[in-house]
Structure formats: C-alpha cells, structure tokens
Specification:
7-stranded mixed β-sheet; 11 helices; 8-stranded mixed β-sheet; 422 residues
Length: 422
C-alpha cells in the first residue's frame, strides 16, 4: 500500500487572487488520509510541524487509477520560507521542500515564464535546464508562470509524475500560475477523459466548468495577471466562452494595478503555423477579433502566449488588431543589457517565449507582408535549444528579458530585452 499512497506530481498554486494562502496538490494511486505538514526551515525533522488535513477526490487519468489530493496553507507572510511535505497519515511522505512565498512589494513584481515544456523523451530535463538558467540570471523571481502544455498527454499519470518529479526542486518551491494548453483540452489527446488539467492544481476558482481547463487571476506587487483558458475553444469553435469573457472584462475593469498581463496558450499573433498558416490560424483570428478590443479597453500591457514553439514579439497592438508600428520607443539599459521600451504604447505587446521543451519549430515559410507586419522581432528556435523569459516591473517600468540557451553547453545563444514605460 506504501507505493499507492506515495505523493506524485506535487504542485503549488496561488489559492487566492491576493493572499499568502497556497493550494498544494498531489496525486496518489489510492485513497488514504492525506495531509500537509509545514514548519520553519530549521525544523528538519518536523518535530514542531503543524498538520493540515487534505481533501481527496477522483483524479482523471487514462493509464492508471489515481486520486487528487489537495490542501490549503495558512495565509503566510510575503517573503517567508516554509519547510513542508505532503503525504499520508499512515507515514508515507514526499521529500521535504522549502516553499518560497513571493514578496509583495507595492512597486515590484518579478516572475519567470515558460511554455510548452511537454516532451516524451526528456521528461522535464529540458525545462529543468531553463529553470537553472533562470536561477543564475534572474534569481529574484518570486513565482513561475506557464502558458500551457506542461506535459505531452494530460491524461497520462506518468507524464505528470515524471515532468514534475524532474523539476521538483523548482515546482515544489515556487507557486506556479499555469494556463491550460491544447494538450490539456484537444479531444484527441484526452481519450474521452475530461478535467485532467485542473486535477493538478488547487485554486479558489470562480464557478466554472473545468472539463477543458481553468481561468483565474493573481495580483502580486503592482501587477494583475489574468490566466485565461482557451479550452473554451473546444465548445465555441474558436473563442472564449461568454462566462469567461465577461469574467475577464470585469477583472480588467475593476483592477487598479499599474500593470496588467495576460497568460493564454493560443496566440492572437504568431509567425508560426497556428498564427500565420491558413486554415491552422482559424482560432487565432477568432481570438484576435474577440480579445483585441477587450485587451485594449481593459488596459492590458503584455499578452504572453505559447502553442507555436518559437520566439516573437509584436509592436503594440491596437483595439482593431493592427500593429502601431510608429509607437514611440527608446533604448535603455536593463541590468547591463540594451532594452527597447515603448514609451506611449497604444495597446499591449504580444509575446511568445518559444519553447522550454524539446519540440522547437520553425517560422511559417509562407508569411505574407501582411502577416509579418505585427512583429517587431521573431526567431525560430532549433533542436537543442530551450527558452524562457523574465518579467520584471519596477514602478513605471516593465521589462521582459527573453533567453535561449543551448541544452548541452548551457550557454546563451540568443537574448533580447524589451518593455514598456508609463
């Protein structure tokens, strides 16, 4: 019974929009008496640990019987370090981990961004290489954002167990704000099973259908982060559903944060096949028509997407979906690097941070001048390269640092910095 109660695929989520409560989730192969133990980092034997009972429910998986276990932590102080483990009261535990509660400075927000980490061959080792580069280059990040497709096949228990097992040093230590990807909701990946994405996270959601993903928001420092679910496209034919759209509109209109960022898997603009090839870009065009006015009217500054596995960033995009190519900009120093900042943006920048897995793709070879017009910069990534980005706000300045590293040498092969100033 010990192996059946062993915790797999541990994740940490922001449970609330704005608090120090974290939702911790793990999978087991049997139902038991799940619990969370937490204490101060010096109490390595958990002699002073507090114990919280966890909830357990059926977890959707194709390749094994599994169960979702989840607990909610107390409201920890920003910047606190917490030693914790999850497991079963019968005496089966995960390895202990230090959970870093993000700081909540009024003028700062710093996080690392990854997308499309899915793979079947390296099972997380490429994502781990990108995470280690982030540790070295951007150690001040407080949490991890992910734009979807964490694993190749969302209904396979082993995909999640291996991916999150090989990246456990990071995914158990930092909150993960993740958007669902098409590998979580395209029906030919699901094998008639629904709900696989949200079975790995624990967030206080507004009432919604989680069959094909989940949507929610996070506020940290001076930023609102809107995590959207393009799983709705399964039901609508290419757009967000009415409930999610109205929720997003309300979140944007009511937020008083200086900066507003959107995480979404499917791109509204991309030089890859899902953004620029007919008919593959059908959903892209439908989302663009629906969301460009919303993002412009709602004051969104940055839209981060995935899906096409390449690097691209646009000019500011207006409400009608056209690029503002004459938007004023200037080059400034960012941590010893030159960065291009738009100083009076007329809409958000759309940004695709390539791929943190092993499925890099090329640029669309049949791009017309009209299709390529929105992009300020784009680059295809080759096999053996892994990419990630840092988002860093400091008062009236938002900076994005994008990096691609060689998986074998660990050396940076491409870097670009850009941002916005208000």
């Amino acid at each position: 019974m010990t192996d059946e109660l062993k915790p797999y695929a541990v994740t940490v989520s922001f449970f609330d929009k704005h608090s120090g409560r974290m939702g911790i989730t793990w999978q087991t192969k049997a139902k038991g008496q799940p619990a969370l133990w937490y204490t101060d980092p010096e109490d390595t034997l958990f002699e002073r640990a507090s114990v919280l009972d966890a909830n357990v429910s059926d977890g959707p998986a194709f390749d094994t019987v599994c169960f979702k276990n989840c607990a909610v932590t107390p409201d920890f102080e920003p910047g606190a370090d917490i030693l914790y483990r999850v497991g079963d009261k019968s005496g089966v535990f995960s390895d202990p981990s230090i959970l870093h509660i993000p700081k909540d400075d009024a003028d700062r927000c710093a996080f690392a961004v990854f997308t499309d980490t899915q793979d079947t061959d390296t099972v997380g080792n490429w994502w781990k290489a990108a995470l280690l580069d982030a540790d070295e280059v951007f150690p001040q990040y407080g949490f991890i954002a992910h734009c979807g497709d964490i694993v190749e096949t969302s209904v396979l228990f082993e995909n999640w167990a291996k991916m999150l097992g090989n990246t456990a040093k990071h995914t158990r230590a930092y909150p993960l704000a993740a958007a669902p990807g098409n590998h979580d909701y395209w029906k030919w990946y699901l094998r008639d099973i629904v709900g696989s994405f949200y079975s790995h996270f624990n967030v206080s959601l507004t009432p919604q259908n989680t069959d094909y993903g989940a949507y929610y928001s996070v506020e940290r420092g001076n930023m609102l982060i809107l995590v959207l679910s393009t799983g709705d496209t399964n039901l609508t034919g290419g757009t967000l559903g009415k409930e999610q759209y109205e929720w997003a509109k309300k979140e944007l209109s009511e937020s008083r944060m200086k900066w507003k960022t959107v995480l979404i898997h499917n791109p509204l603009f991309s030089p890859g096949k899902y953004g620029s090839r007919v008919p593959n870009n059908d959903h892209c065009l439908k989302l663009r028509a629906q969301l460009c006015p919303l993002f412009s009217d709602g004051g969104v500054d940055l839209v981060i997407c995935g899906h096409d596995h390449m690097y691209a960033r646009t000019y500011p995009i207006s409400a009608d979906g056209t690029p503002v190519t004459n938007a004023p900009s200037k080059v400034c120093n960012y941590r010893g690097r030159s960065a291009e900042y738009f100083t009076a943006a007329a809409g958000p920048i759309h940004f695709e941070p390539a791929c943190a897995g092993h499925q890099n793709r090329g640029l669309e070879c049949e791009m017309t001048p009209e299709l390529s017009a929105p992009f300020r910069e784009m680059r295809e990534t080759g096999y053996g390269e892994v990419s990630w980005a840092a988002v860093d706000t400091d008062g009236d300045t938002l900076t994005v640092l994008f990096r691609t590293v060689d998986i074998k040498s660990g050396k940076c092969v491409f870097e670009s910095a850009f941002g916005l100033k208000k």
